[in-house]
């Protein structure tokens, strides 16, 4: 069978940052591919370098060694083909709901997007996210879940090929978080996107992803790649199955081993 060509590729990537105490190695010699249509989740201890990996895919930072490529070309900076969502919602407080969604489309007017197409896109995503009745509202008047739906709408409206998500649901309550999971899966099923997700929730990773990467304590390496066998579309009842719970337990145990390794490293440095 012919091997699928990677859309985003990490090739022996390492990353160090300069601090007041010298060079801090965050990522060490990591390689993995994200193929078309993948939903890849990265899990691991806090501070292990997951966000650093996402920022390199986004083009916000570059590796110290190795390369990160998009369709075979090295990523040198951000681009409209990659939409990024953060935990802090990433919406502009001084713009209304419809203005926030339209913001990226205004920038793309240089690509000759018509006013009618822009209006149609804004209306579509307001309706899809259940925000049509709040079009003139400012983000501060919205609930956390509504602000996150707005952030998702703004990301999707510019039609990026890749969605890069850094703990986008971490600040939400459990019920709202579950609703956002199902909304995201509905959109992915309807439109098809390639996603890289950073999360501390193993359950979230297993429910959403087709592949989960367990990242080690810093400097980060890939400890394990777990293929998630459940077909899309997925439904909440999946989480009650023995197969789901078995995978969740396996990945959770892998992550906890990395937390233990991280604590051992910290203790060793403290007592040295």
Write structural notes for this entry.
This protein is α/β, with parallel strands linked by helices. The protein has a domain at 1-80 and 196-272: P-loop containing nucleotide triphosphate hydrolases (Rossmann fold, 3-Layer(aba) Sandwich). The protein has 7 helices and 10 strands. It has helices at residues 50-58, 97-107, 115-128, 144-157, 174-191, 202-208, 242-271, and strands at residues 8-19, 22-34, 39-43, 65-70, 73-74, 82-86, 162-166, 194-198, 211-215, 222-227. It has a 6-stranded mixed sheet with strand order 6-7-8-3-9-10, with helices on both faces. Strands 2-1-4-5 form a 4-stranded antiparallel sheet. The chain is globular, with a radius of gyration of 19 Å. The termini are far apart.
The gross shape turns out to be globular
Count of strand segments:
10
**Radius of gyration from CA coordinates:** 19 Å
Please provide the ordered H/E string of secondary-structure elements: EEEHEEEHHHEHEHEEH
CATH level-3 fold name of the domain at 1-80 and 196-272 = Rossmann fold
- Please state roughly what percent of the residues sit in beta strands, choosing from under 5%, 5-15%, 15-25%, 25-35%, 35-45% or over 45%: 15-25%
Low confidence ranges? none
CATH superfamily of the domain at 1-80 and 196-272: P-loop containing nucleotide triphosphate hydrolases
Class computed from helices, strands and strand pairing: alpha/beta
CATH architecture descriptor of the domain at 1-80 and 196-272: 3-Layer(aba) Sandwich
CA(first)-CA(last) distance: 52 Å
Strands in their spatial order, largest beta sheet: 6-7-8-3-9-10
* Mean of pLDDT: 88
């Amino acid at each position: 069978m012919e091997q699928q060509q990677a859309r985003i590729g990490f090739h022996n990537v390492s990353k160090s940052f300069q601090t007041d105490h010298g060079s801090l190695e965050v990522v060490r010699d990591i390689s993995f591919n994200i193929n078309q249509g993948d939903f890849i989740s990265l899990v691991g201890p806090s501070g292990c370098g997951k966000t650093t990996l996402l920022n390199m895919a986004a083009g916000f930072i570059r590796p110290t060694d190795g390369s990160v490529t998009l369709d075979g070309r090295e990523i040198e900076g951000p681009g409209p083909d990659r939409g990024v969502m953060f935990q802090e919602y990433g919406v502009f407080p001084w713009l209304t709901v419809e203005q926030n969604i339209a913001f990226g489309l205004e920038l793309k007017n240089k690509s000759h997007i018509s006013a009618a197409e822009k209006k149609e896109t804004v209306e579509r995503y307001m309706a899809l996210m259940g925000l049509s009745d709040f079009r003139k509202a400012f983000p501060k008047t919205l609930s956390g879940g509504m602000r996150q739906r707005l952030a998702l709408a703004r990301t999707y409206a510019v039609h990026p090929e890749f969605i890069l998500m850094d703990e986008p649901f971490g600040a939400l309550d459990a019920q709202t978080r579950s609703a956002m999971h199902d909304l995201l899966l509905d959109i992915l099923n309807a439109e098809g996107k390639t996603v890289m997700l950073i999360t501390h929730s193993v359950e979230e990773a297993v429910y959403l992803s087709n592949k989960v990467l367990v990242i080690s304590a810093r400097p980060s390496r890939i400890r394990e790649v777990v293929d998630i066998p459940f077909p899309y579309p997925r439904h909440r009842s999946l989480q009650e199955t023995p197969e789901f719970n078995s995978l969740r337990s396996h990945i959770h145990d892998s992550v906890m081993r990395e937390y233990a390794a991280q604590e051992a490293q910290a203790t060793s440095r403290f007592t040295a």
